[in-house]
Amino acid sequence: MKQSKTFIPTLREIPADADALSHQLLLRAGFIRQHASGVYSYLPLGFKVLQKIEEIVREEMNEAGAVELLLPSLQQAELWQESGRWDAYGPELMRLTDRHERPFALGPTHEEVITSLVRDEINSYKKLPLTLYQIQTKFRDEKRPRFGLLRGREFIMKDAYSFHSTEESLDETYQDMVKAYTNIFTRLGLNFRAVIADSGSIGGTDTHEFMVLSEIGEDTIAYSDETDYAANIEMAEVNVEYTHSDEEMGTLEKVETPDQRTIEEVANYLEVSQEQCIKTLVFNVDDELIVVLSRGDHEINEIKLKHALNAESVELAEEQAVFELLNCHVGSLGPVKLPVNVKVIADHGIKSIRNGVCGANEDGFHYKNVNPGRDFAIDHFEDIRFIQVGDPTPDRQGTIKFAEGIEVGHVFKLGTKYSDAMNAGFLDENGRKQPFIMGCYGIGVSRLLAAVAEQFQDNYGFMWPKQIAPYDIHLISVNEKDEAQKTLTDDLYKLLRSYRYDVLYDDRKERAGVKFADADLIGLPVRVTVGKKASEGIVEVKFRQSGETFEWAKEELVDRLNNFFHAE
User: Fold this and answer.
1) In the predicted model, is pLDDT for residue 163 greater than 70?
2) What is the pTM of this model?
3) How do the domains of the chain map onto residue ranges?
4) From CA 354, how far away is CA 377, in angstroms rounded?
């Protein structure tokens, strides 16, 4: 492709509203343009990368036995009402009505649509298992779109759904998908980890996220420094053997703590460690107010709390509700002398507290020498805190470290969540109707474009891996007016294309410095420059990732490029 004939609107200045480096470069190098907040156009370069990513995804999905189809983006509200998600999904679901006032949604995901399709078409265990997938635009009304393609309101996703007659069959497909995802992200050259995760609004159990390690990642990964253990921080289990003090229990004492509201303030004021303080919070759990306790140096994990209580919804109680329950404000809450019938859930770390400190449920006062069991009752202990750096791993074979990650893939075991709700099933070998056992497997394709862009760049621009670069070779003629240079460049353009190389030929009437700057910005794997030695049949070849530069004769160019592009 001649550069003068394509559409690559590069920018010299960094866009003011782009925070992530990948977002800045995708805009500057002319790969994308913003249409609205969280909505982007993919320009020719960006679209070519997307197509190559999709090709890798398709190859691995097909190899795993999945079959591609295309489902509608416009989804009937009735299906979402069947599954119970029409109201539960929340404001991220884009809803609309047609001219007949019938409600629809723009699909953020396709569990309902695919379940209804298979429900109507598959009725026997003999046709199972079945895995179907698509690559399609999705819609979610994100409250705060940010980081360009990493969190948008319109995005491209590969979503797959599997249907099974047995749990063993689901387990087999789940592992096949984990392998396929591992192959995809490895082929893309990404630094990633598969981590234990929460299923969120999709539902189900046994789920893993695939995280690309990045400083701008919105998720924190807890991983072992010795084993391959990794989990989203929301799901990382705490397996700490807390030491119990033999110190004699002191007498419970109420003390004044004026204007001391935070754990740090109270600990400093009373000259105790934060470990000795009891953090007391009130949560609204399925419309019931529950008191939740952790050590002062720990943070309560709402996801773990939700799972521990098998709850549908968990959120901090509103301040007015807390005041009506305990007659004090947040900052002075404690578990001593609570109203009758108020449940108390505590993290295991509370067991280690001896002669601790907690709020007195009276503004400006705290208790000293508080001891669990003697001074207040706990309904049950649970692992409900966030894991911390330095904690032992769940298998106790390593120590926890943290890294930031960008979620690019997610695999779920849905079980019968949707098939039960939507009466979708099959006849087993005994002629009895059974619900489909389902799996769900998603990859953020447009997110992958941003994730790769985030990892493969330097101060000058992109350094695209050869397997997904928009073009293989950037061919540059330094001086279009020089007959020898133009002739050799034209000859090389024809030669390289005859060998099936995808070549971007910079034939613009621009200064050499502009061409070189744009070439570095765009970041194709190889730059071939035809300059002063054109009359000798010699060109300069530069490899973008390594920065290595060579002078090669025209006659050896193809063989050497073949060695580079066909090497593993």
Assistant:
1) yes
2) 0.85
3) 14-237+402-453, 253-382, 473-565
4) 15
